[in-house]
Amino acid sequence: MANQAAGGGHRTAPVHTDPEDVSVQTALSAVADPVRMQLIRELAGSADWSRSCGSFDVPVGKAALSHHFSVLRGAGLVEQRDEGPKRVNRLRREEFEARFPGLLDLVLRGDSTR
Amino acid sequence: MANQAAGGGHRTAPVHTDPEDVSVQTALSAVADPVRMQLIRELAGSADWSRSCGSFDVPVGKAALSHHFSVLRGAGLVEQRDEGPKRVNRLRREEFEARFPGLLDLVLRGDSTR
DNA sequence: CCGAGTGTTCGATGCGTATCTTACAGTCCG
DNA sequence: CGGACTGTAAGATACGCATCGAACACTCGG
Predict the structure, then answer these.
(1) What's the CATH code, domain A19-107?
(2) pLDDT tens by residue, B14-29
(3) Interface test with A, best of B28, B33, B111 (most A CBs within 10 A)
(4) What is the CATH number that goes with domain B26-108?
(5) What digits encode the pLDDT tens for the residues B32-87?
(6) Euclidean distance between CA atoms B31 and B71, whole angstroms
(7) A1, A10, B19, B60: least buried by Cβ within 10 Å?
(8) Residues A9-36: what's their mean pLDDT?
(9) Which residue of B has its CA nearest to A108?
(10) Residue B107 and residue A24: Cβ atoms within 8 Å?
(11) How many CB atoms lie within 10 A of CB B39?
(12) Residue A37 and residue B24: Cβ atoms within 8 Å?
């Protein structure tokens, strides 16, 4: 009876927003932040559900990190699921791409290509 | 000998940034602002060089407006030219599109499609 | 040459938000 | 059960940035 997910979570279950219900404004603001950009990039380079929130290499504390994930959820960019004590993530590639064509690619390509 | 442009301008000539020299960060931040988004949309719906800075329907004063145009120039989104006492604008569609594929379309499509 | 029109610069202000610290609420393992 | 680990919530702080008002610079038409 190990990984049961869903059931408990932490205090409350993560609230998700469908990309279809996200405004361009919100999406762009969410993405136009250095820390969140980094999160998205790392997330894109990992398998779905393989990364817990704390496993990212960003220069902010847990609290701020939690906030950023909240913003990403609100923008329909990230889906979360509770897996034991950890909250694991998945990048909503296709759904987000369908709503905001090209945007994710832009973030992922980043400046690395230049 | 009417419109001679270039020559004088106001105090200094407008400083432009090539889209190629703009970071994704900068581009996204520039675009992720309601007022600037509006400017871009109106600009996209007008012929090149047909709109002076003051001719846009945005709810901010001249000072703020000037600031926004400065940001847009810095992001490689807008080109300006002095024409008499006015400063007229042009959206750098192709150049910007080449550097940030899809981004401009995204802003222009906006929420109108939903 | 003066006045109207246009846009920039400067200084000050207000608000949003990213951040930290601390406290708390869960989950799991020994 | 008790402690380690993970993430969220709440309160405080700091900084960026959008905004405004006023002063200035430049152009053009009478």
Answers:
(1) 1.10.10.10
(2) 999 999 999 999 999 9
(3) B28
(4) 1.10.10.10
(5) 999 999 999 999 999 999 999 999 999 999 999 999 999 999 999 999 999 999 99
(6) 9
(7) A1
(8) 92
(9) B24
(10) yes
(11) 25
(12) yes
